Amino acid sequence: MRSFEQRNAYFDRLCNTPGLMWLGQNTNHFDPHPGVIEAVTQALARGDYHAYAPPAGFEELRQLIVRDAGVPDACAFVTDGAVEALYNVCRNICEPGKDFVTTDPSWAWPMMFARQAGANVVELPIYDAAQGYKLTADQLRAAVGPDTGVIYLVDPNNPLGTCHTEAEIREIAGIARSVGAYLIHDATYSQFADDFTPAWRFYPEKTVMTYSFSKWLGLAGMRLGAVIANPDIIERLASAPPNNLGSNVLSQRAAIAGLKTKAEWFPGIRQRLRRNQAALAEAVSRVDGLHLPVYPSQANLLIVETGNAGVRPEALVAAYQTEGVMIRQGTYHTKRFGERFVKISLSVPEAWADRCCELLPAMVEHARKHPEPVALF
User: Fold this and answer.
1) Which of the two ends of the chain, N or C, has the fewest CB atoms closer than 10 A to its terminal CB?
2) Is 377 inside a domain boundary?
3) Residue from 85, 92, 101, 71 nearest 202 by CA
4) Close Cβ partners of 130 (under 8 Å, ≥ 6 residues apart)
């Protein structure tokens, strides 16, 4: 069977597993504000889906996005998820022979998009406690030059959960400007951070920010995101986008309602997330050999190192799946460091998080007894 067929069959099985607890894809499974559901059902009842949406998104939504992102003077282009946004950006700004500089670990798909465009991907290792599991300015400065076309920064980092300070972002933006490189600031997890600084504030000329509704609002299956940049860059991205007929009308109505009610309900989501992180930290502390390198996380996830417990990450993932719990192996994110950890997403109902914690000692034992390779994606 071809690899894409295997991958699809794997996720089809997960999606069709009754009662599966999704703790592996950083998706948000908390219920949104009732107004979000009401907005979707009303749009459905009105038959709004019969017509295409505006090609760049509803004007109200575009304005709400840039205000929420903390860059009200920027321009937003609504997309079918942040992945499509990144695809469109990489296709337009990556050049053959130019360097696409990113971190390791990071998120894998933009690297694939960059390579497809002919760029040379340069991965800077950040899995190091000595540098706070973050990209340093000195590290970036030493890696860039005249051949640098793009710097890609996931902040907060997926999967590490670290977040850059304002001073760090200012310096990174300055380095990008010094070599004339585009700076892609992937802000997918910014809503979960205690403090987030958009790089666009310091380098609006060539900063491109990507924004997701999959995580904080929980619309992963409804596919909605955005690109945020200056109007000239957006004009370029809008000239021949993957979808020129507008993103999902129902998703956009949900997003508008979510942004309008965010102040009422999202602080409670963050509190519940922090509660789940604390529960997992306590559970990890009770199993010899397990370790949390980053805690608390500024994203909606934690990584758990398994090596000193004598457990392969893939074996632990497979063990949890026997109990109807999905977590993620580190090799999804990084070949260099992936054998060290599993990733566990925690923007989920407390009962799911508690079940994951309750199972942890038994799952570690199961993984030790069944270390054989399994097909995971």
Assistant:
1) N
2) no
3) 71
4) none
| Tokens matching residue 49 | 């889906």
SS3 at position 93:
helix
User: Which H/E stretch holds residue 226?
Assistant: strand 225-229
Instruction: Please tell me the total count of domains within the chain.
Output: 2
Last residue of a domain, one of 212, 230, 261: 261
| Whether pTM exceeds 0.85 | yes
Q: Supply the DSSP string of 126-182, one letter for each residue.
A: ---GGGTTS--HHHHHHH-STTEEEEEEESS-TTT-----HHHHHHHHHHHHHHT-E
Q: Note the pLDDT of residue 1.
A: 65
| Per-residue pLDDT tens over the stretch 239-268 | 999 999 999 999 999 999 999 999 999 999
Asked whether residue 347 falls in the same domain as residue 299, the answer is: yes
310-354, pLDDT tens digit by residue?
Answer: 999 999 999 999 999 999 999 999 999 999 999 999 999 999 999
Q: Which domain holds residue 272?
A: 3-32+265-369
Residue 376 included in any domain: no
Residues 226 and 355 reside in one and the same domain: no
